[in-house]
Structure prediction request, 205 residues.
Amino acid sequence: MCNNKALFVDLQPRQSTIITAGEPAPVIGIGTVLIRVELEDEIVNLSLTNTLLVPSLPVNLMSQSKLDEKFYISTLNGFQVKSRLTHELLLEARLIEGLYVVNLERKLDTALSAKESLTTWHERLGHISIARLKTMRDGKASGIKFSEEEVKDFHCDTCKLGKMHRQPILNKERPRCSIPGQLIHWDTCGPMPPPSTKTSIWCWE
Prediction:
């Protein structure tokens, strides 16, 4: 029984149900499933005929009693399924929470290369300093590429927050307002005389 329609190489419609531990599960088709299983040193293609398509199943299931007709189960080296005729190893499985789970072919994750940029390398190398990144780039470090224009416009919010040693505005305890607009805070700067470089901070209550 299989819950994935995409695994079928041929499929015929069929309307029935199977009895499970919970509610009866609807069967919507029957056909042949092609799977690729992983052995120690090779990948094997297997066709499972008379497979029911049951979309509501949480896992795909294989009947051991059906396997026993042409195959036998060996537990000498884990859990293995071998041909009764040739003793060829066809399936290997591992025990997970009471179920024997077939070792399917592992599909490696595909990593797509991001566009090389100053931001990418800065984050990839643990927020390294821009000066050191430029030294690595100019020293022909493998793959590190970015333009001088990126250096001029570069900023990193994470680095700024990480280097802050105090809050920008010191918090002071204030009585809680009971109505909107009872307590208003704002900062002003100016007007300032031309010689002065001081800023004034005012607070109205």
User: Anything to note?
Assistant: The mean pLDDT is 78.
